[in-house]
Structures are given as structure tokens and as C-alpha cells.
């Protein structure tokens, strides 16, 4: 989501009369906020004469802190981050299309969130859920595809809630089906993080049976322990998550599962951590994002009895090790199997399941090539 918005901002600032540096801040964890502040200080040292502006969730939730930094020339809230007037630049004559910096197009179709997970501060920075109409999404995709991109990634803060707020309510499956109908030559369509409980029947059918929808589902799972999920105010159970994975894999055995997992959520005891750890193997999670729990001021979880920080770090390390083992086993199973790989600009590429590949010298960035890996080098198929 941030990448999509950052590229749109980059396109707007191409018309800026002065050199401008933008920090698109994040607030998902306390560490993300600290990194955003560090980025501001570093970029000011590197660009002493530039106009330095801060936007994003951290700057929206706590604008005074960033405005008070001597390095910062201005703060722009999330609601205005794509408004040319706020950047003091003219509106572009046509919407910014595919970025020259990336080989796939990231298309934000939804923003905001209507849920109230007890650990999450993002709704305070993003607001209520808002969906881009199908016609607008198709127009945006047409611009990207005119530049020859081979893969489109649909993104959003709560992607699977797309469509509920439209004048004629719809579901994400309706949008995916409309894209596939409108662009029959689009080779690859990928989804960013999804909430499994929100996957509608049409979307599930497309994930299971449509070859142009990539066999890669990244779940906003958060925990494998039912009591923790309840205290997080998540809307799924461990069994429901595993049933979804089983359904996906039954129809597409090559389906790669990713997941966000939080280690050391308040009140998490040893048994709950064991459940969290065991879901890595149970679900076959090969793309894992592990976050040590980070209290966000103003959220209900921040008032719950905390797990000692050293234990949080230890549990996070155990989760990362479990994901690393599952991922290594998965990659070894892909050796000797041909796959269509999208070439990146740095000599690497990704298969439909988002497995990483090392490319032959001279591969054209943005091209789709078939590779049969013979081994693994530094965590990549080669």
C-alpha cells in the first residue's frame, strides 16, 4: 500500500519546482515510527537544501512530533497525500501510470479499515474503509498495462473489505472477475495481504481455479492461538484459518501461504505461544512476517498485562526460525520443477508462488521466462 502511494507521490513531484524529499511514514509498530524519525534525520543530512516533507500514518497520528523536528519543512496527513495542491504542484494531465522503478504494478483499490483489532493503531491514521469503484480501477490498470507490465498486485489496508461501502455494494471477487474479463491478456494478477474470514465465494473460486490469479495467499493471521485471537478481536479461529488453507491447497497444491504473526501479545502464556508456533507447520507458512508485539498508545491491547520484552524477543526468534525451516523445505521441493518467473531489475525474479529466483545474466527486466532451478543459492532458487 505504501509503495503504491509513494510511487503516486513520486509522479506528482516530478513537476515540483524545487528538490523535494518525502518520508512516507509508518505507524504499525513503535519501531516503524522510530525508523521513520531516523529516516527524516538521515535524509536531511543527505539533502540539506531540499524541501523535506513527511506524510503517512505516523505523521497523521502524531503530526506534532514530526512538525517539531527541525529537519521537517511540513507534514501532510494521509487524507491529502495524493492531492497535488498539498504538495504545491500542478495536477498531472493524466494519472500516473506504471513506475519505471518496478516490474509489477501495485494498484491500491481500498484504503482505511472499519475493524477494531485491539493491537492496531492504523484505523486512526487511515480512517474508515473506502473502496475505489470498478471503473476507476480498470482505468488505472489500463494505464499500467499500456506500459507493458506483466503482473498487477491489488493492495489495500483491508483489501478483502473492498466494495462494502460502494453505492452498489460488491465483494472483492467481483472486482477480480471484472479485471480478468476486461484484460484477457494480463498474465498475472496477485493479491496483497487478505483477511481470510472476508474471502467471498467468488474470490475463493478464482483463487482455487483461475490460473491467472497467482497461487499465493498472504493471510492477516496474527496468531495461531484461539484465546489470543479473541483478545485481539480478530474474527477468525485457528480452525477456520487451517480449513481455508486446506481448501486452497486441495484445489491448487502449489498454493504458497504467507502470514503475519505477532509474537508475545499481552497475556500470551507458554501454551498460547506453542499454538502460535505450531500453526507455522500446520498451515505450511513459507512467507512469514513476524512482528514482536509493540504496544501502540491508545489501543486496548496496550492496557493489557504485557509479556516481558526479553520473552517477546525470544518468541519472535522462535517463530522466525520455524518459518525459515518451513520455507527452506518448500524451496528444496521446487528444485528441478519448471516455473514461469517475472524478472526484476536486480538480477532476481519471482515465480507465481512468489518463490525467489536468481536469473541468468542478461535477462530482460519485466519479462516472463521459464526457469528450472537446479539448486538453492543464498536462499534463492538458481
UniProtKB/TrEMBL annotation:
Enzyme Commission number(s) from the entry: 2.8.4.-
Transmembrane segments: none
Gene3D superfamilies assigned to the protein according to its UniProt record, in alphabetical order: Methylthiotransferase, N-terminal domain, tm_1862 like domain
Protein name: MiaB/RimO family radical SAM methylthiotransferase
Record domain MTTase N-terminal: where: 1-92
Domain of life from the UniProt record: Bacteria
Keywords: 4Fe-4S, Iron, Iron-sulfur, Metal-binding, S-adenosyl-L-methionine, Transferase
Cofactor(s) of this protein: [4Fe-4S] cluster
Domain spans labelled Radical SAM core: 99-329
Organism encoding this protein: Novosphingobium pokkalii
SUPFAM superfamilies, per the entry: Radical SAM enzymes
Signal peptide range: none
GO molecular function, one term: transferase activity
Keyword hit for S-adenosyl-L-methionine: yes
PANTHER family listed in its UniProt record: RADICAL SAM PROTEINS (PTHR11918), THREONYLCARBAMOYLADENOSINE TRNA METHYLTHIOTRANSFERASE (PTHR11918:SF45)
Amino acid at each position: 500500500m505504501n509503495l503504491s502511494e509513494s510511487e503516486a507521490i513520486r509522479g506528482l513531484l516530478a513537476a515540483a519546482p524545487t528538490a523535494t524529499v518525502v518520508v512516507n511514514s509508518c505507524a504499525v509498530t513503535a519501531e516503524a515510527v522510530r525508523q521513520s524519525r531516523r529516516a527524516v534525520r538521515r535524509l536531511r543530512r543527505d539533502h540539506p537544501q531540499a524541501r523535506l516533507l513527511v506524510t503517512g500514518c505516523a505523521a497523521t497520528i502524531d503530526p506534532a512530533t514530526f512538525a517539531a523536528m527541525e529537519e521537517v519543512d511540513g507534514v501532510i496527513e494521509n487524507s491529502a497525500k495524493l492531492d497535488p495542491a498539498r504538495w504545491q504542484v500542478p495536477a498531472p494531465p493524466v494519472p500516473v501510470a506504471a513506475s519505471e522503478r518496478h516490474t509489477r504494478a501495485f494498484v491500491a483499490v481500498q484504503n482505511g479499515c472499519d475493524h477494531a483489532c485491539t493491537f492496531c493503531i492504523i484505523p486512526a491514521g487511515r480512517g474508515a474503509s473506502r473502496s475505489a469503484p470498478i471503473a476507476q480501477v480498470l482505468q488505472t490498470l489500463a494505464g499500467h498495462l499500456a506500459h507493458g507490465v506483466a503482473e498487477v498486485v491489488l493492495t489495500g489496508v483491508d483489501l478483502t473489505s473492498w466494495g462494502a461501502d460502494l453505492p452498489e455494494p460488491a465483494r472483492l471477487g467481483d472486482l477480480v472477475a471484472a479485471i480478468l474479463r476486461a484484460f484477457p491478456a494480463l498474465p498475472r494478477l496477485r493479491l496483497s495481504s487478505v483477511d481470510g474470514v472476508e474471502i467471498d465465494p467468488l474470490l475463493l473460486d478464482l483463487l482455487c481455479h483461475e490460473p491467472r490469479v497467482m497461487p499465493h495467499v498472504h493471510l492477516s493471521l496474527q496468531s495461531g492461538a484461539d484465546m489470543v485471537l479473541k483478545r485481539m478481536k480478530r474474527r477468525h479461529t485457528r480452525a477456520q484459518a487451517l480449513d481455508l488453507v486446506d481448501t486452497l491447497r486441495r484445489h491448487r497444491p502449489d498454493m504458497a501461504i504467507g502470514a503475519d504473526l505477532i509474537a508475545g501479545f499481552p497475556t500470551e502464556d507458554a501454551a498460547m505461544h506453542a499454538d502460535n508456533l505450531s500453526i507455522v507447520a500446520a498451515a505450511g507458512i513459507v512467507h512469514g512476517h513476524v512482528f514482536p508485539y509493540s504496544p501502540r498508545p491508545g489501543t486496548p491491547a496496550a492496557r493489557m498485562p504485557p509479556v516481558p520484552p526479553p520473552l517477546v524477543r525470544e518468541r519472535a526468534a522462535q517463530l522466525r526460525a520455524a518459518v525459515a525451516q518451513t520455507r527452506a523445505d518448500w524451496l528444496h521441493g521446487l528444485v528441478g520443477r519448471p516455473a514461469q518467473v517475472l524478472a526484476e531489475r536486480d538480477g532476481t525474479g519471482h515465480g507465481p508462488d512468489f518463490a525467489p529466483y536468481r536469473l541468468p545474466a542478461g535477462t530482460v527486466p519485466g519479462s516472463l521466462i521459464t526457469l528450472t532451478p537446479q539448486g538453492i543459492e543464498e536462499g534463492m532458487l538458481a
